[in-house]
Design brief:
Number of domains: 1
Radius of gyration: 13 Å
Helix content: over 70%
Shape: globular
Largest sheet: none
Number of strands: 0
Order of helices and strands: HHHHHH
Number of helices: 6
Structural class: mainly alpha
């Protein structure tokens, strides 16, 4: 499994594999590994996507449900109010948007295969 190549903590693995997107994150991690991403960058991307996953779970989105742009927009409306900031908010939002964009691209690739 891809996640074991980036994380070793059982609690972290359990958290990543839960929620509406949990079943997809192993494949996303494997894709990042295949594309040559360094483990530290993969961990950052997965951490950022896990925030979306948590938001979707709180919003009642079920596993396997189609992810709509309104779901992601709703996440970005709420995220600034509860995120733990690592520097200026705009820089943090840019990093999270980048990770989620990469995840959405991955989902598009999977739908095309």
């Amino acid at each position: 499994m891809g996640l074991e190549q980036a994380f070793s903590c059982p609690e972290t693995l359990k958290k990543l594999r839960s929620g509406p997107l949990g079943a997809l994150l192993d494949g996303f991690c494997t894709s990042l590994l295949t594309h040559g991403f360094h483990r530290s960058i993969i961990r950052k991307h997965l951490s950022n996507v896990s925030h979306l996953n948590q938001h979707l779970g709180r919003s009642g989105v079920a596993a396997g449900q189609i992810l709509f742009p309104k779901d992601i927009d709703g996440f970005f409306k709420e995220y600034p109010s509860w995120c733990r900031r690592r520097g200026p908010l705009e820089a943090q939002l840019k990093r999270v948007r980048h990770s989620i964009g990469r995840f959405v691209d991955y989902l598009g690739e999977q739908a095309g295969t």
